[in-house]
Amino acid sequence: MSELHKFLFEGLPVRGMLVRLTDAWREVLARREPGHEYPPELRDLLGQMSAAAVLMQANIKFNGALVLQVFGDGPVKLAVAEVQPDLSFRATAKCVGPIEPGATLEAMVNVQGRGRCAITLDPKDKLPGQQPYQGVVPLHGDQREPLQKVSEVLEHYMLQSEQLDTRLVLAANGDMAAGLLIQRLPVEGEGNLEGKRNEDDIGLSDAFNRISMLAATLTTEELLTLDADTVLRRLFWEETVTRFEPQKPRFACTCSRERVGQMLRGLGRDEVDGVLAERGEVEIGCDFCGRHYRFDAVDVGALFTPPGHQPEGGTATTLQ
């Protein structure tokens, strides 16, 4: 069962979370059509992104969708993980070329240095005219050197955007996607800004650095094979850790026939009619869950008919 554990270190301004996506992650992979399975390197990248996105959503408690995207100029054009407030998530990736065995993030997405990481917060109840918030960072650090891990990219993003020190350990394979997040809690006033930290703030940072170094000793094998109790006990056995009731992330797709219909309306009647004339029907497949939506001539006519004027009938189908 997939689970997310939140915890605090008693007496220290440090919080943590551990996520283990098991059945939910296998459901993501099972939705791929036979013959279109992800190469192991891309599978693991997407799994790490899924774990990271769940951690970030749980961390900020945002009432809307958190969307984590990595895109660039390599064989992987786009990888996406989206998490809702209830920690339901979905993920997909688009690959247009071969991926070499053992390929790094740079080799998959950032070949010419044009790779980017975007984090979008899309509110559930938007105000009139309100747009989603999006932050975009390049896939390199302060020294302009390419970052080879999703965890490094997101640590850099959190420091730049939130001024919060963060340590992320991520891992994934065909059975599990998992992650550990350690973060220094914000202090009052300007204490988070470089050059504004007093001696007390420095002491608080030292506490984070110590916990962070312990977290960094966690190996990929340990993260993917040990249960949450064992991981936390091995890493922080000298600390007093307060744990909260675990949450249950799950796979869920937000696609629907209504959303597909809205998308077709956005394309315009002429373009949709062109597809209909060529193929006899319009079929749209969801990249996230594999569900297919089909619209025949009557369905298309209804889409572009004002409310209250739709004819009865049609053979609208939704295929799993």
Short structural summary:
By secondary structure, this protein is α+β, with helices and mostly antiparallel strands. Helices cover 34% and strands 26% of the residues.
Strands, helices and their partners?
Elements lengths: L2 E7 L4 E8 L1 H8 L9 H21 L3 E8 L4 E8 L4 E8 L9 H5 L6 E8 L9 E6 L11 H13 L3 E7 L4 E8 L14 H18 L3 H6 L2 H8 L5 E3 L6 E2 L5 H11 L1 H11 L2 E4 L6 E4 L1 H7 L13 E3 L1
Parallel strand pairs: 5-11
Antiparallel strand pairs: 1-2, 1-10, 2-9, 3-4, 3-6, 4-5, 6-7, 8-9, 12-13, 13-14
Shape: elongated
Helicity level: 25-40%
Question: What ranges have pLDDT less than 50 throughout 5 or more consecutive residues?
Answer: 189-200
Q: Mean pLDDT, rounded to whole units? A: 87
CATH topology of the largest domain, what is it called?
Answer: Hsp33 domain
Largest sheet report: 6 strands, mixed
Spatial extent as radius of gyration: 22 Å
Spatial arrangement of strands, main beta sheet:
7-6-3-4-5-11
Instruction: Report the CATH superfamily of the largest domain.
Output: Hsp33 domain
CATH C-level label of the largest domain: Alpha Beta
Strand content: 25-35%
Structural class: alpha+beta
> Topology as H/E string?
EEHHEEEHEEHEEHHHEEHHEEHE
Q: Count structural domains.
A: 2
Distance between the termini: 24 Å
